[in-house]
Structure formats: structure tokens, C-alpha cells
Design a protein that fits this description.
308 residues; alpha/beta; Rossmann fold; 2 domains; 6-stranded mixed beta sheet; 4-stranded antiparallel beta sheet; 11 helices; binds adenosine-5'-triphosphate; binds magnesium ion
Length: 308
């Protein structure tokens, strides 16, 4: 599908994807990649300039009312009323959606997203993470089959994120929901999604499970050698030269050398041997090993970092 806005911006350029029922599908891409535009087309809020969207086998444009009842949306911009309390917002949305047994559903979701203690607080006085959790609650009140989450973890601290991870998993498991989420945060996409599409400039670059993407596009692991000082100075020329002899592809930044490896144990022992042999140990601050991330996959595909 394509979307060209009236100002001429071609925000979505031939994106094509299929989401399976019961999966968590992540749209990962940098700011301005076209994630929100894509989601707004999926929920029938925006009309594609070209292309078509079917949800549960039906066109969203021709069956809007019927399909929309099965979709819950937690938009990037908050959709609740700021002067109402958490509970009043939930009650209002439940009434609008005609939710049966609404008190029970509200309690259930307040419990899931840990909003019970702040149910009588005004919504504009909540923290960023609490607002996100209220946003999610409102999207789920009418028990939709398909949940659309735009930047669900924005503004959340690690503890709120943990609540998000576990609640999303439990929604998929116990309520069999399908979830589509958009984010520019690779950790969110990685932790939550069964499959991911990486989007850049309105195009899909690749679609697969996060583990598969890291396996296909990653390099195994990276050994990072942090030195005690500026790598550009003469003090470190020997260490740079010796490492380069064994690993010609070694990369370096101001204070560290990075070696990509498919056999970390073997390469680590070679490295330690080399440091010992040339008496270089005292120049090293620390050595660490890190697995490939989706950020590495993105860099591989685009030559840029996700956050640029
Ligand atoms: N209503 C609009 N009218 C015109 N251009 C728009 C509109 N909304 C978005 N755009 C443009 O379309 C492009 C894609 O925007 P979109 O909001 O879909 O990106 P995004 O991937 O959701 O980014 P973010 O991570 O910042 O939320 C951007 O260049 C943006 O400036
Ligand atoms: Mg967006």
C-alpha cells in the first residue's frame, strides 16, 4: 500500500504485509518511517492512496463499522479526557463501546495494568507510564480480537515495561488476541513480537522472527575491548596493530575495539593470549561480550542507526 499526504509527503511506499491471527506483530522503524501512517490505514482512519487492506478477510473501507468493533486501538497520542479520573475515563469508554459487565472488565484491566491504586486520580496528573497503561486499558475494554498499539512503551520505566511485557503475553495466551504494535525502540519490538517488519522510508525491508533476523543479518557476537584512554593516541598503537593482525575487520570507536565473532570462546581465548604475550593487560579497562541486536540488523540493512 501507498500513502501520499496532501502536502506531498510519500509516507508509505509500497509496504506489504500479512499478520497471522494470534501473533504479536511488530513494526520497527526510526522516527518518520511511516509506522503510524500504516496503522492509521489499518484501522480505517486514513484512506490509502493506493492498495487495499483486509482485516479478518474483509475490506476495512467497506465494512468499517463491523470490523472496528473487533479492533482496539492505543494511539501514540493519548485519546482519553485529561480532566476525568482514571476510572471515569474507563467508565466513559465502556459506555461508548457498550461493554457488558463493565465494572468487572474495568477491575480486571486495572488489575492487569496496575491502575487500581490510582483509579481516582485525574488523568492529566498521571505519570507518562501510567498514562500509557490507561491508554492500553481503554483499548481493551470491549475485548477486541485485534489490538493496535502505537509506541506502547513510550515514557515507561523498566518496571512499567515489565508490566507491559507480561500483560501483552497474557492477553495473547489467555484471550487469544492478535496484536500489531509499532515502535522505534528495538528492545520493545524484540521482547514482544513473534515477527517483525523493519520499515524505513515507508518501505518494508525485511519480515521475520526477531531471532531469525539476528541470526541471518547478525554476526554472532561482538567482543568489545574498552581501553584506558583515547584509542587514537600512540599509547594504543601496538594493541590496535596486534588485534588487526588477527582480526582484519576489527572496528574501533574512541575508547573501544569491536571484534565480530562467530566463535566467541575461541576468539576470546586468542585475545587474552595476545594481551598476555605483548604485556598489554594494564591498558585494558574491560572486555565484554554482547549478542547481536536488532539495531545491528537495522544498521546492516540501512547503514544507519535506528535513532538517527
Ligand atoms: N497528517 C500528516 N500530514 C502530512 N504528513 C504527515 C502526516 N502525518 C505524518 N506525516 C509525515 O509522514 C511521514 C511518516 O510519519 P509517521 O507518523 O507515519 O511516522 P512514524 O514511523 O510513526 O514515526 P514516529 O516513530 O516518530 O512515530 C513523516 O515524514 C511525517 O512527517
Ligand atoms: Mg508514529
Amino acid at each position: 500500500m501507498h500513502k501520499i499526504y496532501s502536502n506531498g509527503i510519500h509516507a508509505v511506499k509500497g509496504l506489504s504485509l500479512e499478520v497471522e491471527q494470534g501473533e504479536v506483530f511488530g513494526l520497527l522503524g526510526p522516527n518518520g518511517a511511516g509506522k503510524t501512517t500504516t496503522m492509521n490505514m489499518m484501522i480505517g482512519l486514513l484512506k490509502p492512496t493506493k492498495g487495499k487492506i483486509t482485516i479478518f478477510g474483509k475490506s476495512i473501507m467497506n465494512n468499517g463499522k463491523e470490523i472496528k468493533q473487533k479492533i482496539g486501538v492505543a494511539p501514540q497520542e493519548f485519546s482519553f479526557y485529561s480532566h476525568l479520573t482514571v476510572y471515569e475515563n474507563a467508565k466513559l469508554f465502556a459506555t461508548l463501546y457498550d461493554v457488558k459487565n463493565c465494572e468487572r472488565r474495568i477491575d480486571e484491566l486495572f488489575n492487569l495494568f496496575e491502575l487500581d491504586e490510582i483509579r481516582h486520580q485525574r488523568s492529566d496528573q498521571l505519570s507518562g507510564g501510567q498514562k500509557r497503561r490507561l491508554n492500553l486499558t481503554l483499548a481493551l475494554l470491549h475485548d477486541p480480537d485485534l489490538l493496535i498499539l502505537d509506541e506502547p512503551a513510550a515514557g515507561m520505566d523498566p518496571q512499567s515495561r515489565a508490566v507491559l511485557w507480561s500483560s501483552v503475553k497474557s492477553l495473547v495466551r489467555s484471550e487469544n488476541k492478535t496484536i500489531v504494535l509499532a515502535t522505534h525502540l528495538m528492545e520493545v519490538a524484540d521482547k514482544l513480537s513473534d515477527r517483525i517488519v523493519i520499515i524505513d522510508h515507508g518501505k518494508d525491508l525485511v519480515i521475520d522472527a526477531p531471532e531469525e533476523l539476528k541470526r541471518k543479518f547478525g554476526h554472532g557476537e561482538t567482543i568489545q575491548i574498552h581501553v584506558k584512554g583515547d584509542l587514537a593516541s600512540d599509547e594504543f598503537s601496538l594493541i590496535k596493530a596486534k588485534v588487526k593482525e588477527i582480526w582484519p575487520d576489527v572496528k574501533n570507536s574512541n575508547h573501544s575495539l569491536q571484534i565480530h565473532t562467530d566463535d566467541a570462546i575461541d576468539d576470546l581465548s586468542k585475545l587474552l593470549e595476545l594481551l598476555k604475550q605483548h604485556d598489554l593487560k594494564q591498558k585494558i579497562a574491560d572486555i565484554s561480550l554482547r549478542s547481536e541486536t536488532l539495531e545491528d540488523v537495522f544498521i546492516k540493512l540501512t547503514g544507519r542507526k535506528l535513532r538517527e
